[in-house]
């Protein structure tokens, strides 16, 4: 709990500014402002309540990294279209035996209040741990979803979307059920690891007696400013990852990623479906390949993500191009060929992953890979058809292992005064 | 391995600049330069070899976060006095059965070459994984140390410093031997998680057949720019942590932290001893305390680190100050009272920790706390006497648990053309 005897003051004029369009990444106008602060321009500014007490005397201004913030209220929940954050937590909870619809509604109300406050850089409503004290919101986002089991436990079976039907089994799956599924799913992302951990603890405590942690995973992406190439992330295989992601500027983006406002079921209006896969990378095997062999597996240049058929990262892949011997330049089983949206009936998903590294097995094998999170209006037209194709003949499949899986219905954003899922729980 | 068919070019004029004095933290002159780059001032600069090929066309300049670099060569090894980094890996290796002094020397030579290159933002000497490609050095430091067992295995028992004698048992220790000790210790820190992981994999591969990973731990600190209070870190208990750290500007800093140039043994000249403890925080218990009760445990204000006797974070603690009832304001068993250097015969250590969070136990208890790393010229005058006192009556002890421990001799920095430990291995 913040110490109330210390006057409330903002630590930086930056904190309450509107978020920028970069999702907290790249070098933004706000970084310019933040840096200007080093010369004293914004030091000592005050006004507005941030919830935490003033920082000590030697405080220096936050840069954009700390001061950028996402908005909790909106048409969609946060954490879907924002830029990748440096730190992420995924967690699933199961409702406890005694908890039903009423307790779930109260939980989602608590969670929404906490998310709104923390995303604004304020303290948690109850018993704040102070771990995020004197940091800015750091682009924190908190996103909530419902799993298949939630609807039975709350007597809301009739409201369960058919899109939540269990994913088909894939032959390459090696799923750990204890780290899969769950009644409730929470995604936390932030550009500061302590801000993210602070949020995770607050969310866990809010669960109280209503829900119990089922599984939890930690991930990361690049720190803002660490790379000169902020558009596409690199994964732990060293590949650019997400080159073909649909862009919000594309005319069919909303249709592919979000349930329409006329949503079916109605409570999913402006929502989306998240497929979550813990994909272990078999790095010891992968790293034995030459760069050329790795590029043949992916179908793209490792250095800059350009298709093997030529051009740069954004150049369309020429699937028909052949070499002097008549062999396709982009191999038939290349990952990028198989996942091309125009070869999958227009299927598209927005990939928004975190890398993970949970140490090493006893034999020195890294337990590392991708916390794959993808977003789509309909998993049967997004993840499923693509994964079916990959399952049949993807050259990458021998270097990865799907170890956990989840599918969650993520309702639209809460309006002011509303909590996430209210239209389901009080519909 | 970088793709040699793409022209070598710097992605930013920032990369080759000298490191700044903030250790990559705070808002520096270089952040100003980096931000200026957003207006195009430094875009497209070239010259100098960075080892990675040019980033794709939409490259934007690195900010200080990415471009700051530490120096591998110097009087001391890197990673001791630099500011805390956002991501850290600690790893211990044991020499394999067939490896002796010769293999150890070759290993330290490989490791030194890799550390020098990666810290400069270049690719690893062999089979680079590309995971750090198009990121800057991001204040990467790589630090090497020798454990007690190293000297038996290499026939160098006579060179083993008495300071490496095993630490005494403390009554509160609950040490996991499998995650303690080790022949060789490597500390990696960087402000970008992928840069740190890239270094860890390169170091692991360099070990080859000479050494095998014994244990490995991941940690984190705040992201540069996320906090308005960069001087002192906050830990996962929400406390400012490191307030009383000796400062390089203090006249006795070197004497306390580093072995003298006349070192005994000679090969440890300008070296230091690292005590490493995995300290689990019992957060479920800690967070049940009121803020006032937590502050009595520590002896300092949670909000700003000021002593309970008054002032601000830097105000000396008044140990004699009493309240109206004659009770000490700073309780006798307060952590900050017991650890006061002037009550411990001047014992001082430089604490440079990472927080850690390895998920949750099955009952929802967080496996989180501090990867405590402290540096001193002599553990018997640094860590040991302080820990002895804490072991006897520290109010904090019931909220923490030491789960792993290591003590390592970290030789001085390598001169140009030299490798770390050369004076030991070829002495």
From TrEMBL, chains A, B:
Keyword Oxidoreductase: yes
Record-linked Pfam families: Dyp_perox_C (PF20628), Dyp_perox_N (PF04261)
Catalytic activity of the protein: heme b + 2 H(+) = protoporphyrin IX + Fe(2+)
Role summary: Involved in the recovery of exogenous heme iron. Extracts iron from heme while preserving the protoporphyrin ring intact.
Domain of life: Bacteria
Primary site of residence: other
Keywords: Heme, Iron, Lyase, Metal-binding, Oxidoreductase, Peroxidase, Signal
Cofactor note: Binds 1 heme b (iron(II)-protoporphyrin IX) group non-covalently per subunit.
Obligatory cofactor(s): heme b
Dyp-type peroxidase N-terminal domain mapped to chain residues: 77-221
UniProt key word Oxidoreductase: yes
Enzyme Commission numbers on file: 1.11.1.-
Lineage start: Bacteria, Bacillati, Actinomycetota, Actinomycetes, Kitasatosporales
Family: Belongs to the DyP-type peroxidase family.
SUPFAM superfamilies referenced in this protein's UniProt entry, alphabetically: Dimeric alpha+beta barrel (SSF54909)
GO annotation, biological process: iron import into cell
Biased composition (Polar residues): 1-11
Species for this entry: Streptomyces yokosukanensis
Localization, UniProt: Cell envelope
Name this protein carries in UniProt: Deferrochelatase
PROSITE patterns: DYP_PEROXIDASE, TAT
Domain Dyp-type peroxidase C-terminal, first and last residues per copy: 232-414
């Amino acid at each position: 709990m913040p110490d109330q005897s210390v006057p409330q003051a903002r630590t930086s004029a930056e904190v309450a500014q509107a978020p920028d369009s970069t999702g907290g990444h790249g070098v933004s106008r706000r970084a310019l402002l933040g840096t200007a602060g080093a010369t004293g321009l914004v030091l000592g500014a005050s006004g507005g309540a941030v919830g935490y007490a003033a920082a000590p005397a030697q405080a220096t201004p936050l840069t954009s990294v700390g001061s950028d913030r996402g908005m909790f209220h909106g048409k969609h929940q946060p954490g879907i279209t924002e830029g990748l954050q440096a730190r992420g937590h995924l967690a699933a909870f199961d409702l406890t035996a005694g908890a039903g619809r009423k307790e779930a509604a109260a939980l989602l109300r608590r969670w929404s209040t906490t998310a709104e406050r923390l995303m604004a850089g304020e303290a948690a409503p109850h018993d704040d741990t102070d771990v995020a004290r004197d940091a800015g919101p750091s682009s924190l986002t908190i996103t909530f979803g419902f799993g298949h089991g939630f609807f039975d436990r709350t007597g809301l079976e009739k409201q369960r979307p058919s899109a939540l039907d269990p994913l088909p089994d894939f032959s390459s799956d090696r799923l750990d059920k204890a780290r899969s599924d769950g009644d409730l799913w929470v995604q936390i992302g932030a550009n500061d690891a302590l801000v993210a951990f602070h949020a995770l603890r607050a969310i866990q405590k809010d669960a109280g007696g209503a829900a119990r942690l089922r599984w939890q995973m930690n991930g990361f992406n690049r720190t803002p400013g660490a790379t000169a190439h902020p558009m596409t992330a690199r994964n732990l295989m060293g590949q650019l990852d997400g080159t073909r992601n649909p862009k919000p500027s594309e005319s069919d983006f909303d249709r592919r990623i979000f349930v329409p406002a006329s949503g079916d079921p109605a409570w999913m209006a402006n929502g989306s479906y998240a497929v979550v896969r813990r994909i272990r990378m078999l790095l010891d095997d992968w790293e034995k390949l030459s760069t050329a062999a790795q590029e043949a597996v992916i179908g793209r240049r490792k250095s800059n993500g350009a298709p093997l058929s030529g051009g740069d990262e954004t150049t369309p892949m020429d699937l028909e191009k052949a070499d002097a011997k008549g062999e396709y330049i982009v191999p038939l089983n290349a990952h990028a060929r198989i996942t091309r949206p125009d070869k999958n009936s227009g299927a598209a998903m927005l990939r928004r992953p975190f890398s993970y590294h949970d140490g090493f097995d006893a034999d020195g094998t890294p337990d590392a890979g991708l916390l794959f999170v993808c977003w789509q209006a309909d998993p049967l037209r997004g993840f499923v058809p693509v994964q079916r194709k990959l399952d049949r003949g993807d050259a990458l499949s021998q270097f990865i292992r799907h170890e956990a899986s989840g599918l969650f219905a993520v309702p639209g954003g809460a309006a002011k005064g509303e909590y996430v899922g209210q239209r389901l729980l009080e519909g």
